[in-house]
Amino acid sequence: MLKAPIGILGGTFDPIHIGHLRPAIEARDALGLAEVRLLPNHIPPHRANPFCSSEQRLAMVALAAAENPGFVVDERELQRDKPSWTIDTLIELSQELPDTPVCFLMGMDSLLGLPSWHRWQELLDHAHLVVSKRPGWQPDYPGEVASLLARHQTRDVQDLHQHRQGHVWIADNLPIELSATRLRALLAAGQDPRYLLPAPVADYIRRHRLYQPSPSR
Q1: CA 60 → CA 6, 71, 152, distances in Å?
Q2: Which domains, from first to last, does the chain contain?
Q3: pTM higher than 0.90, yes or no?
């Protein structure tokens, strides 16, 4: 008999904010996830290198996890000296947790760009995909994504409990329009980030003077 599924949320988390956390909280509650693991990337494969160090980003993720019941930190991707390919992590987790369904949490923008991911056709061999909506999204899927949904999408939560992998579930979450890029710009301008990220993370950023503008010459 399978155990309750867990959620996996990877990201640069530079910094971690409510746009990451709120959809994960809603997925935890809607799907009955036993836990949500936050996995900060070391070398993100789909974007520029982070502004903050791995140690700083890990510290912020740990502070955010401590604020949310059922959230934990998984450091495995920070231990790698190569890009943080999702498929590698999902293979490891499926081997470590043979009786636990794994739900990989992602945004709609990531789903639409899935064909550009490394070995993306294999993701559902090792996990379910749980997709959160983003502001302004339209269900106009590229051909390969539409084909994937036609074969694997489910609206039955029990499918994610009764099978270890192979389904796509699109959440009916509250879309939040916030990106780390926009948040970094707000912080660099000296604006108050209150309610956009956990208070302990905001305090950490303030104490360590992260995301400050470069001194003028």
Answers
A1: 21, 13, 35
A2: 6-177 (3.40.50.620)
A3: yes
